Amino acid sequence: MKYIYADSMDHVDPGYDFLEDRYAPTRNPYWDDAFPHEIMGYAPYDGVLVSRGIVGDHRVSGKYSEAQAMRFRRVGAREFLRLNKPEFANLSIFGDCGAFTYNKEDVPPYSPEDMAEFYHEGGFTHGCSVDHIIFDYDETLRGMEGGSNEARRRYDITLENASAFLKLAKNLPDFTPLGVIQGWSPDSMAEAARLLWKMGYRYLAVGGMVPLKTAQIKLAIGSIRDVIPHDARIHILGFAKADDIDSFASLRITSFDTTSPLLRAFKDKKSNYYLPGRNCRLKYYTAIRIPQALENNKLMRLVKQGAVRQEKLVDLERGALEHLRAYDAGQATLDQTLDSVLAYGSLAELGTPIESRPGAATVDDLKERYLRTLHDRPWRLCDCAICKALSVEVIIFRGSNRNKRRGIHNMGVFHAHVAGIGGSE
After folding, report:
1. 283: which strand partners?
2. How large is the greatest C-alpha to C-alpha distance in the chain, in angstroms?
3. Residue 233, Cβ neighbours under 10 Å: how many?
4. Distance between CA 140 and CA 280 in Å, rounded?
C-alpha cells in the first residue's frame, strides 16, 4: 500500500528563527524553502500527487503563482518539486484534475486532451481521467436504482471522459492512466468500476470519498472489489480518513492520497502530534497552543472586549514560552509549566481566562491533554530530523513554520505506519 502525499506547496523556511519568530532575512519562499523530503532528509511518502486545481491556470485559480505555474510546465513536476535526485527516482508522481475546484460547474473545465497534455508536460508517472464529482450517496440503493438526474449526468460525463482519456494515454511514455470512479451508491460505483475495467483500465481511482464516513467508504470499496479481478489496482482519491487506513488492509488498497497527517498538526483540536502506537494504531498528542499575542485575531478580540489587558496577554505569552523551554531543559517543574501554559492556552483555545471557568469540563479537558503532553515529552521520543533539531519547539502550536514542521513529522510517522500495515509496493 502506497501513501501518496497530495502537495499544496507546503514547504518551510530552513532558516527560520524560532526564538525571535522571524523568517531568514533574505528568504525567497520557493527557492529557499524546503519541501518535506528536503527538511526530513528522506521522502516521508511513496509519491506525490499534484492536482491541476492546485497548479491552476486561466480557467481555475490555483495556489501556484503565475510564474510558478509556468515553471512547473516548463521543467516538469519532478524538477519543480525537487525530486530529481537519484534517491527520489522511485517516487511516483500522480496527477488529477482537481475536481473539487470546479464541482459547481456544469461541466469540467478540462477535456481529456487537456489533461493528457498536462500529464505529458509535467512528466507524471500516473494520471487520473477527468471526473465530475457526485455528492449524492445512499448505501441502501441496489443496482443502478436511485441517483438524481444531476448525479446520473455527472456519472455519464465521467465515464465518457475516461474512455477518451484512455485512448490518449496510450501515447504517453512511461505513464499509467487511472480511470476515476464516481457514483451515488456502492452498486453504482461498482458498475462504473466494471465498465472502466472493460474499457482497459487496470488501475482505478475512487473519487467522491472525502465527505463519507469510514464505514461508507469500506462499503463502496468492497462493492467495487466484488466486480473486478483480484489483481486490479485501486487508489482512493483524497482519503480524509487516513488514520483508519489499517482497517482497509483486507480491501487490498494499492495507494491513496491524503494531506491528513499534515493538516491535523494545526487544524485538529486534539490530535496534533503523531507517534507510533500499539496494535497497528497511532498515538496522538495535543500541541501546546501559544499563538503570537499581538497577531492572533481571537486574542485581540478579547483585548478589545476588555476580557484581558494587552500587557497581561504579552506577559502570559512570554511566561508560557519561557516555562515550556525551561521545562524541556530541566529547569522548571511540570506543575509550574502546566499552570503557565494553561493560563495562556485557555485564552488561546477557549477564549476566556482560566480563572473565570474553574472546574469547567472544557478547562479540565484542556488541562488533562496538556498534562499528558508535558508528562510524556513525546518530542524526545522521536529521532526524526525535525524533532532532533527543534526539541520542544515542535510541540508548540504557533505559526506555520512550527505547525508545518510538526505536520511533516506526522507524515514521517504515518508513512512508517502505512509501511508496517501492508508494505510499500
Report:
1. 275
2. 69
3. 18
4. 31
What phi and psi values does residue 398 have, to the nearest 5 degrees? -165, 105
- Which run of H or of E encompasses 387? helix 385-390
**Helix boundaries (H) for 172-309:** 186-199, 214-227, 260-267, 297-305
Q: Which amino acid appears at position 136 of this protein?
A: D
Closest CA to 205 of 131, 296, 293: 131
- Out of 13, 96, 187, 243, which one is annotated catalytic? 96
Pairing of strands 255-258, 273-276: unpaired
DSSP character string of 79-112:
HHTT--SGGGTT-EEEEE--GGGGTTSSS-S--H
List pLDDT tens digits, range 319-351.
Answer: 999 999 999 999 999 999 999 999 998 888 877
Exposure letters 137-161 (e unless 16+ CB within 10 A, then b): beeebeeeebbeeebbebbebbbeb
Q: Cβ neighbours of residue 84 under 8 Å, at least 6 residues apart?
A: 78
Is 136 a known active-site residue?
Answer: no
Classify residue 40 by its DSSP letter.
H
Set of cell numbers at residue 180:
476515476
Give me 373's grid cell.
Answer: 503532553
Contact 134/155 with Cβ under 8 angstroms?
Answer: yes
**Residue 277, pLDDT above cutoff 60:** yes
Q: Which of 280, 279, 290, 295 is nearest to 373 (CA)?
A: 290
CB proximity list for 70: less than 8 A, separation 6 or greater: none
Sorted by where each begins, the domain ranges of the chain are 2-258, 288-403
Domain 2-258, CATH: 3.20.20.105
Which three cell numbers mark 265? Answer: 498538526
d(CA 363, CA 46): 40
- CB 157 within 8 Å of CB 99: no
Cα separation, 350 vs 353, in Å, equals 8
**Other beta carbons within 10 Å of 25:** 7
Confidence of residue 360 (pLDDT cuts 50, 70, 90): low
Give the integer Cα–Cα distance in Å for 405 and 36. Answer: 8
| pLDDT tens per residue across span 258-268 | 999 999 999 99
Other C-beta atoms closer than 10 Å to the C-beta of 292 total 12
Residue 95 corresponds to which cell in the numbers above? 496527477
Task: Please say if 257 is a catalytic residue.
Answer: yes
Q: Identify the three-state secondary structure at position 121.
A: helix
- Tell me, yes or no, if the pTM score tops 0.90: yes
Query: What is residue 235's three-state secondary structure?
Result: strand
Q: Give CA torsion, residues 245, 250, 418, 258, to 10 deg.
A: -40
